[in-house]
Amino acid sequence: MEVIPQVAKGLQVTITVLLASALLAYLLAFVAGLSKLSNNVLIRKATGVYVEIFRGTSLIVQLFWLYYAIPMLFGIQLGTNWWIGVIAIGLNYGAYLSEVVRSSIVAVDKGQSEAATALNMSSFQRMRLIIFPQAVRMMLPEFGNYTILILKSTSLVSLIGLHDVLYYGDIIRSTNASATPIVYGVILVFYFILALPLIWMTRKGEAIAKKGAASS
Amino acid sequence: MNTTYWSWERFFEALPIVLDGLWMTIFLTFASFAFALIVGFIWTLLRRIPIKPFNWIVTWSMEFIRSTPPLVQLFFIFFALPVIPVIGITLSPVQSAILGLGLHYSTYISEIYRSGIDSVGKGQWEAAKALNFSTMDKWKKIILPQAIPPTVPMLGNYLIILFKEVPLVSTITVSEILLLANTYGSRNFAYLEPLTIVGIIFLVLSYASAFLIKRLELRLNKRFDKNALAKSS
C-alpha cells in the first residue's frame, strides 16, 4: 500500500490545475456569454468564433496545439506547462459554459425585464438586479456538471509532463508492472473522492435552481 | 531555424499522413457509440430492478464511471487488466479503446434513456394497465414509441462529444489522426502543421454532423408533434 503516498504527491498539481482552470473557465464563460448578447455585431461575431473553435475541436488537440504549436508559430512560450494546461482547459470549458450563461440569461421570463423597464430601471440595473440573479440560479446545475468534466480533464495535463496523480501512477507502472492494477485503481478512487463534493454541490445547485427562478 | 513558422510545404506533406488515420477515428467513434448504446440499455434495465441495495450499487457504480477520467479508465483497461491475476485479459489497443470509451459514455447514454422513459406521461402507463397489456406489449407498443423520438437529438449530441474524445486513445497507441500527427511531429520536429490539420478535421466534421443532427431533430419534431396531436384527440 505504499502506492497511495506515491500517487498522492501528484494531488497538489491536480487540485491547483482544477481550481485555476475552473476559475478561468467561469470568468471566460461570463465574459463570452454576455458578449454573445452584446448589441455590437463585431463583439458578437468575434465571441462566436472563439466559442465555435473551442467547442468544435477536442481538448486534447487544443492542449497539444498550445503546447507544441504556439512556440513554433510565434517563437514564444505561453508560460510554464502548468499555465499551458490551465489555459487550455479554461479556454475549452469557458466556451462550453458561455453557452450556459447565454441561454440562462435568455431564458429569464420576458415579463421580468418588462417589469424592470416599467419601474424605470436603467438597462444596467435591470441586468444586475433583476435578470442576473435569476439567471445565475438557473446556471448552477450546469456549472456543477461542467466542473466535474473539468476535474476529469485535468488528467490530460500528465501528457504535457505535469506531475499530477496520473503522472506519478505512470512512473510506478513503468518500474513495477505487477502493481499496475492497484496504481490505476487508486488513481480512479482519488478522482472519485475529489468528484464527490462536486457531485454534492451539483445536486444542491439543482435544488436551488428549482425554486425561486424567474419562469416559475 | 527552419522549423519555426508556418510552412505550406509541410502542411501538404503531413496532410495525407494524418488523413490516413481518419477511418480509424470514425470507426472508433461509431464502434464505441454502439457499445455505449448497448451497455447504456443494460444500465437502464439494471436500475429498474426494485431491490434497494442492488439499486444503490448500480447507481454508485455508474456515478463512479461517470466522474472519473476516461483517460485513466483507458489506462486501466489497457495496462492494468492484463496483469490482474486469474481474471486478467489482454485486449488489443483498438478493443481497449472501444471498451473504455464505450463504458464511460454508457453511463451518460443510460441517463438519456431514462429521461426519455420519464417523459412518457403517467396516463399512458395507466392506460396500458387498464387495457390489460402484457409487459412486453406495454413497452413495445406504448412506452418505447413515445420515449425514443425525443432522445434521438440528445444521442446525436453525444455521438459528436464521443467523436471529440476519440483522440484520447492515441495514448494507448491506436493509430488515429492525433497519433499520426504526433508521430509526424516528432519525426520532423514540426508539430504546428499536423496538429493544425487535426484541428481542422475536427472542426469540419463536428459541424457537419451537428448540422445533420439539427435537421434530423426538426424532422422528428414534426412527426412527434403529429403523434402528440393524435394523442390529445
Poorly predicted segments of chain A = none
Global outline of chain A? flat
- How much of the residues of chain B is beta strand, in percent? under 5%
Number of domains of chain A: 1
CATH topology of chain A: MetI-like fold
Number of strands of chain A: 0
What structural category arises from helix and sheet content of chain A?
mainly alpha
The CATH superfamily of chain B is identified as: MetI-like
Distance between the termini of chain A: 53 Å
Distance between the termini of chain B: 75 Å
The overall number of domains of chain B is 1
Protein name (chain A): Amino acid ABC transporter permease
Transmembrane segments (chain A): 15-37, 49-70, 82-101, 143-162, 182-201
Family (chain A): Belongs to the binding-protein-dependent transport system permease family.
Subcellular location (chain A): Cell membrane
Descriptive overview:
Chain B: It is a multi-pass membrane protein. The complex is a heterodimer of chains A (216) and B (233). Chain A contains nine helices and no strands. In chain A, 80% of the residues lie in helices and 0% in strands. In chain A, helix 4 packs across helix 5 and helix 6 packs antiparallel against helix 7 (123-153). Chain A is mostly helical. Chain A has helices spanning 3-8, 11-35, 41-56, 59-74, 81-107, 110-118, 123-153, 165-175, 180-210. Chain B is 77% helix and 0% strand. Chain B contains ten helices and no strands. In chain B, helix 1 packs across helix 10 (192-232), helix 4 crosses helix 5 and helix 5 (93-118) runs antiparallel to helix 8 (152-165). Chain B is flat and about 75 Å long. The mean pLDDT of chain B is 91. The interface between A and B is large, with 42 and 41 residues.
